[in-house]
Each structure stands twice: as C-alpha cells, then as structure tokens.
Amino acid sequence: MTENNQCIAYFCAEFGTDNDLPTYSGGLGILAGDLMNAAADVEYPLIGIGILYKGKEFIQHITGEGYEEQRDSQFDHDTSFLRQTSKDGKPLIIKIPFDNYEVSVKPYQIRLSDKTLLYFLSTDVDGNPPEWISDMDALYRGDMDSQIRQQIILGVAGIKLLAELNYKPKAYHINEGRPAFIIWEIAANLMKIEGLSFEKAWVRAKEKIIYTNHTLVAAGNLTYTEAAVKKWANLFAQKLGVETELLFKEGLIGPNTFSTTLFALKIASVHTAVSQAHGKFCQASWPEHNWIAITNGVHLPRWQDSDFRSSKLSDEIIWELHQTKKKELRDSVIKRTGLGYDSNKLVVTWARRLADYKQPRVIFEDTKRLKQILTNEKYPVQLLFAGNSHSGDPNAKSIVDEIIRIFSGEIAGSAIFIPNYNISLSNHLVSGSDIWLNTPKGNLEACGTSGMKAISNGVLSLT
User: Which of 187, 231, 340, 369 has a CA positioned 20 to 30 A from the CA of residue 210?
Assistant: First the structure.
C-alpha cells in the first residue's frame, strides 16, 4: 500500500474474479472484477469489499428431459486459494454488536498486487445465529430481513474491516445501492474520532461517498418496507444516540417504503452512470442529481485472447487465428453438451444472464424464418445460446426451459444451448464466435460490455 495507507474503497455486492468462486451473478460482478484487475495492473491503491457466498444453486445443469436445474457449488473457501485475513499474526474477526448478541464476520482476501486487494466477508462462523450463517448461502437470495442483514455485513462490517487494517480511504465508491449502509459506520467513526455531532458527521461522510448506478431494472433498485429497515437501523441509532429515522429517512419514497437506490443517491456526493445513453436515462429518472456518464470498459488481458494481442498481425494471420478459435469453441461446446457442429458455419452467439429485459425470446418470434436462416444451404448458420437464470427469478427459469424446447424441435441441429455460463465459457464464446448478438431493451441495458470483449477478438457485434 501507500506509505500512509490512503486508498479508494470499492464496495460491491458481487465480484467475478475467478471462474469457480461463487461471488458473482452477472455483468455487475464481472465488471467489478475487471476493475480490480485493471487497478492491479497499474498498482493503483484500490481496496475491494464484497461478500463470500457459498454458492447454493450456483451451477446450472440441464436434465436429460431438457429442464434446468440449479446445483450447489462445491467451492470450499477454507481450502481454496483464498487466505483468511490476519492482524498481528492472528486471524482477524470483525464484530458487529447488537442488543443481546454479537455477530462475528470473518474476512478473506485475494492480493491482486501490492496495492490492490480484494476482501470477502463471511458470517459463516461457528457461534453466529443460524440466520446470519444461512445469509451466506447465495448471492441475492433470502427474505427481506436476510437481504438487509447482508447489506449490513457489506456496509458496516466492510467499514470496520478497513479501520481494523488501518486503511485510510480518500473516497468510498459504492456499486448500486446495496452497500449504502456504509454511511452508518463512517458517521459513527467521525463522531468517535473527531468528536463531531451526528449532523456534521453525516454531512462529512456524504462528501466521501461516490455512487454508481448500473441498471434501471427494478431488481437492481430494491425497495423494502420502512418497518423492516427501521428494525435494523434502531440497533445502530441507539449506539449513536440519535433518532432512528435519521439513519434511513433519506431513502423513503412513500410513507412505508424504503428505496436502496434513493438512499444511495441521497448519501452520495457524486453520482455516475455507466454510458452516455444510460446517463441520459438516469438524469431523466432522477433529475435532482447531476449525473456523470463514465462508459464501462473491460480488462483486455482477461478477455482478449493472447494470440490477438500483437499489433503486427496481418489480415491473413488474424483470419487463420479466428478459424482456430472457432474450432476451440466447438470443442468446448462438445465437452459441455456432447453436441457438435460444423465450425465452418457462421457462428452466431447470444450469451449473457437471462432476464426479460435482455429480450432473449425475440429471436424466436418467427421460428419459421429463423429456421430458414439457420439451414440456408449456401450460407448455413449455427446458433449458440448460453445464460444462467437467477434462482430468485422464476420467470428466467421458464425462459431456459422454453429455449431448450425450441432448440429440441424445429431448429434442432442448428442451435445449441450451452449450460452453466461462466467466465471460462465466456472466454471461449467471445473469441470463437463470428457474430455476437445483442437484443436489449434500450433504456434497460446500461452499457453492454460483452460486445467489447467480442470485438477485441475480431468478433463482430450485432445489436
């Protein structure tokens, strides 16, 4: 780290850093992982804070009857490459005190470079209340109380960890609204260390918080009942000696509803969107804030195949490499599905997290025409499809079942669904396809970084 331990603290509910580490669900986690890797490349003092989930229902499996199942990850963080964080030679445990009990939080870490570290927090600790242990089962699961507890772990325990390790963040960057309870602990620290009143500490805390919105989709902009948030906020308000409502009133969008997004907007001094178009939609949705549009990028060393990284490649060599990557993708598909295809076909790929706003069904609105395109004798096309449904989104599961049914019927032999879409599969798809197909609903697809990964390997993006 820097001599005085100054850094940027980067909070996100998910980080996609390793293929098998079940701490990511979709594009948000992959983006967060890319940012951490990019910071490590230039030795930027960036400290990531996330949650160490156990991966319940993390693995997608398709049954012999063509139905989707979700199986548990076998990842064991205690025997993995993760290292438990220590202090003064002893394993560090963070404590969150409540009225008649306390919760132990065990931090693990990945050192990406000397100045870039990623910490994962876990309450899967012996002696913790069972509900806090089960909160670690899987990303974005659980009832309202469970989700709020997870946000307390991320926000409050995350700030406690930074203090324990003597980090001195110049700014706190929160991705989406889930980490927004960081302000409770930041304000508490300012009151304790600098002797500030609650009102002044709250204002000072806001000055250091940066908020990035990544989606206008409701699932990324959570709401809870006021009563549920108040129940948990009350425990922190008592210790601060303030009225409970002061800790959450800025997130109220009605007499009984708390919005994580509104709260994050109100407690941050800087508000950013992830593309120029997304910035315009954010400005229209929340006009009382000034939005800065910073287009997302990708970490090229992770997504661009090493064979394509030379600037001296001729057109002929690029084409030969592309043909090789197409064969490698075909082999990967065979390994995953048992189904093969002619790699000389034009390979069109649709791959991303399955959700209605990404409109995967539009491709199949006219299956007769689609079949004509795929089976054209002169210019045959191979369609590849991949995407995981979220366990908390039953509608997404029906999308998978519907797609597999279509692929087994009219367009069988020309379309393949590849299960368990993950980082490894994505690497093959973005380098071995010919066309990268996007079908988003305009205002809900904030940026669309997958096309950037594809074009870096010479794969054309079609929206």
Answer: 231
Q: Residue 90 — pLDDT band, cuts 50, 70, 90?
A: very high
Question: With contact defined as beta carbons under 8 Å apart, do 23 and 54 qualify?
Answer: no
Identity of the amino acid at 175:
N
| pLDDT reading at 160 higher than 70 | yes
CA-to-CA distance for 236 and 221, rounded, in angstroms? 24
pLDDT at residue 215 in the model? 82
In angstroms, the Cα distances linking 401 to 352, 385, 445 are 16, 13, 23
Whether the per-residue pLDDT at 385 is higher than 90: the answer is yes
Which CATH number is associated with domain 301-462?
3.40.50.2000
pTM of the model: 0.94
- State the fold for domain 6-293: Rossmann fold (3.40.50)
Numbered ranges of CATH 3.40.50.2000 in the chain: 6-293, 301-462
Q: What is the dihedral of CA 445, 450, 454, 455, to 10 degrees?
A: 50
